[in-house]
Amino acid sequence: MLWGLVAGLAPLVPSDTIRLWGIDLKHGVELRMGRALFATVADTGPDALAVLAALLDVAERRGQAMAGQVRAHTPRPGDPLHVLVIDELADLVAYADRETRMEAARLLARLLTKGRALGVVVAAFVQDPRKDVVTMRNLFTQRVALRLLSDQESAMVLGDGAARTAPAHRISPTAPGTAWVVDDEGNSDRVRADYWPDPAIRELATRYPCRSQIVPSPPDPQGTDSIDESAEDGPRLRSVPSGLPERAPRARRPRSPRAPRARAAAGATSAEGRRSG
After folding, report:
1. Which CATH entry fits the domain spanning 2-131+197-241: 2.40.50.100, 3.40.50.720, 3.40.50.2000, 3.40.50.300?
2. Pairing relation of β-strands 188-192 and 81-87?
3. d(CA 13, CA 75)
């Protein structure tokens, strides 16, 4: 399913009408098979956060440019549709360390709420669709269900009533690639994706390479992430100063010994007197 989506977009990648971004925390073993198709592939938590922050910055800057001019972005060469492909979303938002999980969920939720009209789309793939794994599940407007384990999972992914109209839990294990899709009008369709062997993916990447390569940099606590479009080897994600002056550490004056309070001294004297008596 993943490579079918990527392959359908691939012919528009070399002209920069489509720009593919990837996050694959399984050491990149899936997406790096077609690495040349992508502007970047993040396979560590810090790099994934940098990619999400950079795409959110793209959406913010594009939204500012579109305000009052047009309500929906139209892709064209040099002003592409940005597509983020996340393989195994749970590795990022459920199973990573606590700091990465929280920041990834925050960035991804913001991206999903504002990105599509601005030409930034997220395609995420996950094995466990439960709400406690994918907390922002309802922010994905289009869902595809491959074979699931139960009628409850069919309802989780495709909505109420899907267990009857789109029974993904009844897909046979002998029919890999088969899935159910429920469109925006509530109509159910059964679909099937082709299998993409490794040589076919490599050939696809060789034929339609991405011309813009982005090097993700972990966020700098003293700056903000941005994309350097002037880099000779394509745009490079880097950190720029925030423009805020650094505060010099406040000098600490040595404290002089403080004299004991009179009350404390009197109490000590009384106690001493009681012990003596």
Report:
1. 3.40.50.300
2. unpaired
3. 11
Dist. CA 6–CA 85, nearest whole Å:
9
**Structure tokens belonging to residue 214:** 């982005």
Give the pLDDT confidence of 36-54 residue by residue, as tens digits.
Answer: 999 999 999 999 999 999 9
Report long-range pairs for 222-228 (Cβ below 8 Å, ≥24 apart).
222/246, 224/57, 225/50, 225/53, 225/54, 225/57, 226/54, 226/57, 227/54, 227/57, 227/58
| Host H or E run for residue 233 | none
Helices (H), 68-212: 90-93, 98-114, 151-158, 162-165, 198-207
Q: What six digits make up the tokens of 147? A: 């074979």
pTM comes to 0.77
Spatial CA neighbour of 184 closest among 142, 219, 139: 142
Give the residues across from 18 on adjacent strands. Answer: 81
Any bridge partners for residue 208, and if so which? none
98-146 confidence digits (pLDDT tens): 999 999 999 999 999 987 889 999 999 998 888 778 888 888 888 999 9
Specify whether the CB–CB gap between 7 and 205 falls below 8 A.
Answer: no
Structure tokens at 268: 């000590």
Q: Is 213 exposed, middle or buried (0-12, 13-18, 19+ CB in 10 A)?
A: middle
Q: Which contiguous run of DSSP H or E holds residue 270?
A: helix 262-276
